[in-house]
Structure formats: structure tokens, C-alpha cells
Amino acid sequence: MTAGVDLGHPQAQAIQSDEDVVRVRQLVRAVAVAVKLSLVDQTKVVTAASELARNTLVYGGGGSVEVTTVDNGRRMGVRIVFADSGPGIADLDLAFTDGYTTGGGLGLGLSGARRLVDEFEIETSAEAGTRITVTKWSR
Amino acid sequence: MERVPILKIGDILLVSIQLDMSDQTAVQLQDDLAERIVATGCHGVIIDITALDIVDSFVGRMLSTIASISKVLDAETVVVGMRPAVAITLVELGLSLNGIRTALNVERGMELIAAARADELEYQLDDDPDAETAIP
Question: Which of 3.30.565.10, 3.90.1150.10, 3.90.25.10, 3.90.1570.10 is the CATH number of A11-137?
Fold first, then answer.
């Protein structure tokens, strides 16, 4: 099941197309299985990754993702960093409001993804683009 | 791009999604289903998502849209086979799957469509006792 996942090194994946979003899901799933997340937690983190990867593609104009395993001594987890050099998010409070969208979607991607993970950090600016880091820990 | 096959069984179109769909594949399925509903005159659509290990907001929206489109085209849509972990995640994500009927498996989905169809025919008969076309 963990074949092809090197736990010691970060796994990188470009996000430039629809198919890349599928690859991000598969990569995150493989790492989540490797760190022994429960089935529900695997499902949550893969769903969150799918939302954020699509945002990177649609709003960020493409970018990249890096998946790493983390270990705090007691628990293992999966950490995913999404980075794009797009226009950034002008109003973060608004962007995190359920149902708000500028792209014709459901407006659940960002707010929903934050609910599905344990840790969520976002850095965004018009100059540097958007960088979102999420972590899901095993129980 | 991969395509999801649509099978016709009697008066029902059966779609069993067996692959991790790209967004484009999902949109294509939506279009293909609308075409097939009109071409076949089927009154029921069953979408089996047993093999899907996630449903994100894009696929969720696609399911809602298919249900709405098929309703306009006089067909009932039932989504069957959702995994428990997927249901838990969908609720936390905030997706309500508005207007979508669900059933635990294909068999129950078929029963649901047959029952909905019978109700509708009865209603049409009550409405217009002279309507011969209402009887299949």
C-alpha cells in the first residue's frame, strides 16, 4: 500500500491541470495511509487537499504542492503545502465565509478544507501569491 | 480524458463511477447523461459511488446538477453506495447535496425510482381521468 512513497523526503507535485489535481489526491492518500491515519481522517485530508489543489489551479493560476510526513514524538501526521504565485486573496475573512465565491463554485473550498484538517495556515499577498499549509495528525 | 460509461437497464440509466474523476471527466458525465436521458426516454438515473473514496465540492455540485437536469428531463436521480467516511466528510465540508435522493445500494435505488414513478403516474391519472397517454 505504501509502495512508491518515500516517507523520509517531501513529495512534490506540480498543479497545472485537472489531471494534476487527481495526482495530488492520490499522493496525499498514499502518505495518509503510510502514517496510519484512520479511514475517516484519510478521507478528510484527501478531500481538503482536493479543494485546495483546485483553488491553486483555478484561482492561483497553477502552482505546486509538497507533501511531507510529520512526527511530534507522540503522533504521526501528514503536512501539505500548496503554493502559487497568483494574485493572492484580497479579503481573507470574506474568502473563509461559507458560500462566498469569485469563481462560480460553491464557495466551500477554503472554509470546508479548514474544517477538515487539524492545522491550517495561510500566507497571501498580491506580490508573493498564496501559500497554504495544512496538517492532519493521526489520532 | 477518461469517460464514465452509462448503462441502460430497462427504464433506468446506471452509472457506476469506478475511477478518480478529473473535473473535466465529471463535467463530461453531466453532459453525456443529459444526452442519454433524452435519447433513451429513461425515467430514472442511478449513480453508484461505491468506488469513490472522496466526494469533494466539485463532484458534490456535479451530483446536484445532474439531479436538477434529469428532473427537468422527467427523470429521477438516486445516488447510491456512499461510503460512511465520505458521508462524514461531506457533512463537515458543508455540502448538503440539495435535491439529491440517496439509497444505500443499487437495488434500493431501483425500488425508490419505481415507487416515485408509480406515484407520479397515479397522480397524472387522478388529474386527468381521460388521459390515455398516462398509462405506459
Answer: 3.30.565.10
